[in-house]
Amino acid sequence: MLIGGALTGAPRTFGVVDPATGEEFDRAPDCDGTALDAAVRAANDAWPDWRDDAAARRARLAEAAAALRAAAGELAPILTAEQGKPLRDAENEVARAAARFQHLADLEIAPDVTPGSGGERVEVHWRPVGPVAAIAPWNFPLQLGAAKVAPALAAGCTVVLKPSPHTPLATLAMGRVLAGIFPPGVLNVVAGADPLGERLAAHPGIRKINFTGSVATGRHVAATAAPDLKRLTLELGGNDAAIVLDDADVDTVADGLFWSAFANCGQICMAVKRVYAPAALHDDLVDALAERAAKAVVGDGRDPATQIGPIANRPQYERVRGLVAEALAGGARAAAGGAPLDRPGFFFAPTVLAGAEAGMRIVDEEQFGPALPVVRYRDADEAIALANATPYGLCGSVWGTDTARAAAVASRLDCGTAWVNGHMRMSLDEPFGGTGHSGLGLSGGPWGVRAHCEPFVLHIPAP
Fold first, then answer.
1. Residue span of the signal peptide, if any (predicted)?
2. Across all residues in the chain, what is the average pLDDT?
């Protein structure tokens, strides 16, 4: 672990499982209360100097980006071993993490200026809130860890980063790579089994929590933060709908839809989780998606031929298996897949479900795995109503030949981001956040930096 600028172990360790084998392959330090107190104390001690030198912050962020790029050959294999994704995807994740540090190194947040009621100059400065607890998930531990750390550091906050206990090793390795780049205590990295995250969120030395995970855990984080009025950013996933319009060309949209649903084994918060198809195209679209599912190469992420790895951990594997079995028992049909693969590890056949309906849990809930329900609809109004009939509101997409019509339909989706003829395309310059149960707050660009700040308004008399 990285605490106060020093690399340290822990008296206890916990096991880390390779999802491609289902077996423990390494152990990680289990942070105890003494070490957690030391990490939070180090973050508090480092904060006054760190917040006061924006130029130094940008320089260190750029150094961090370069160090991560140079360490891709070390970090990516660790990530594949603990998370399961193909090695090339792990390499892309390291690159994306580095890009987040570089992006924030190049972004300067200037005060906002507005005229006052008496003609004076009014400056709105953005002051860092203080030490931040960054709690990252297991699907993209490095990319989403960097998405929390980089804007907090750019704002002038210090950070205690905690990865998921399912995927601690790559994040700990990232901490080793970045040790010495930031002043001691500015970035601390701890790992541990539950309830370390709860203890970190509740710690009185933490002023903001930036969490990505499930709705249930997000509610708990919010309740934990409430007594101390800690600031919150919660990204709690989504049940993203893709509406295929009746003028769509099935062959044109099928590839984009398939990989928007099955990339990273379907374990992406903004992935397509359900498809709505018009009656006239439903069967053809199901066949096209099923054909791609049958051809996709599922295997160990270390095999260069692999396109889809295993589900990342046993609890998620069991959830996906249960949701698919329940849908099949309720009348859905597996046009492809429908069951686990007969091999060690947490492999599940890429599954396309025809005849899925609202009311089935795999339609109504976020499955977060390699299983895609396709729901038939009568007209665009019904499709929009079905897509919006969810407590989630992260992302959505509309697919069709008439892009103006598709954009008009997309504008009626109740979500934070919508696309036309695509999904999951996102730059580092734009805001990202959801509505409803998909969370609170924004990340990305200047919005992500200001999410770690509070405004300070300064009135200056006119000369």
1. none
2. 97
The strand ranges marked E within 206-342 are: 208-212, 231-235, 240-244, 272-278, 333-336
- Across the strands, what pairs with 208? 132, 231
Tokens of 352: 């396309």
Cβ density class 7-35: b for 16+ within 10 Å, e for less: eeebeeebebbbbbbbeeeeebbbbbeeb
CA-angle at 18, arms to 344 and 238, nearest 5°: 100
Determine the Cα–Cα distance for residues 374 and 363; give it in Å rounded to an integer: 9
The answer to whether 60 and 181 are in contact (CB under 8 A) is: yes
Domain residue spans in the chain? 2-236+438-460, 240-420
**Which is the CATH superfamily of the domain at 2-236+438-460?**
Aldehyde Dehydrogenase; Chain A, domain 1 (3.40.605.10)
The catalytic residue among 63, 235, 291, 318 is 235
Per-residue pLDDT tens digits for 171-214 = 999 999 999 999 999 999 999 999 999 999 999 999 999 999 99
Which pLDDT value is given to residue 115?
Answer: 87
pLDDT tens, position by position, 98-108: 999 999 999 99
**Positive/negative CA dihedral, 416, 236, 421, 425:** positive
Q: Rg of the Cα trace of the chain?
A: 23
Q: What angle do CA 235, 307, 177 make, to 5 degrees?
A: 55
Please give the pLDDT value at position 24.
98
The yes-or-no answer on residue 235 being catalytic is yes
Cα-Cα-Cα-Cα dihedral of 60, 64, 66, 68, to 10°? 180
* DSSP H or E run through 353: strand 351-356
For the stretch 123-168, pLDDT in tens is 999 999 999 999 999 999 999 999 999 999 999 999 999 999 999 9
Q: Record the tokens describing residue 4, joined without a space.
A: 């106060």
Helix (H) or strand (E) holding 439: strand 439-440
State the distance between the two ends of the chain, measured CA to CA, in whole angstroms. Answer: 53
Quickly state the pLDDT bin for 116 (edges 50, 70, 90). Answer: confident
Domain 240-420, CATH class in plain words: alpha beta
Report residue 117's pLDDT band, with 50, 70 and 90 as the boundaries. Answer: confident
Backbone angles phi, psi at 363, to 5 degrees: -90, -40
Q: Does residue 195 contact residue 55 with C-beta atoms inside 8 Å?
A: no
**Alpha carbons 124 and 454: distance in angstroms, whole number:** 10
Is there a contact between 420 and 407 (Cβ–Cβ < 8 Å)?
yes
